[in-house]
Amino acid sequence: MSIDTLDTTHLLALAAALGWASGLRLYAVVFFTGLAGAMGWVPLPAGLQLLQHPLVLGAAGLMLAVEFFADKVPGLDSLWDGLHTLLRIPAGAALAGAVFGGDQAAWATAAALLGGTLAATSHVAKATTRAAVNTSPEPFSNIALSLAGDALVPAMLWLAVAHPVWFGLALVVLVVASVVLTLVLFKFLRLLVRKLRGRLGGAPVAV
């Protein structure tokens, strides 16, 4: 993932990747991005160089470890997602906007809007999927999905820098899949809640 410079295509891909991945694993995004800059693998834009600071890396690494284990526990993962709803989306927007910095206000604003939207899309899809999976008594599918997210985030960050065009294609596929999955699973969860309410209340439930 080592390159000498980031051109506009790479910067756009990086902004999109930071936004999208923040909706899944915010602390992993901060840690891996900062680590890549600190190790000299990627020349981070000025707005992201703060992530290279040892204190930021240490805090992000600690929270990454906490999130790694919390995300593997059914029920706790949904609670964790709920608590981070108000953090992941604005953080995704801020990280995406920081790719272009204050010297390119128009690009930074557009990137922030893009990053926030992508973060919201991935976060909602993740939270909805994990809530649906948690209705199953076995924990293995939950752990498998969590491990897939652990692997997907650094893979997409790497792809954005190394092969931005391929990243763009992969991102389109993932966003479309996320929207479809969210709509389908939201209907499933809504029906499940209505059935549970009907059983608890003793009243018939209209499907």
UniProtKB/TrEMBL annotation:
Protein name: DUF4126 domain-containing protein
UniProtKB keywords: Membrane, Transmembrane, Transmembrane helix
UniProt xrefs under InterPro entries: DUF4126
Domain of life of the native organism: Bacteria
Natural source organism: Pseudaquabacterium pictum
Taxonomic placement: Bacteria, Pseudomonadati, Pseudomonadota, Betaproteobacteria, Burkholderiales
Domain DUF4126 residue range list: 12-181
Residue spans crossing the bilayer: 12-38, 106-128, 140-160, 166-189
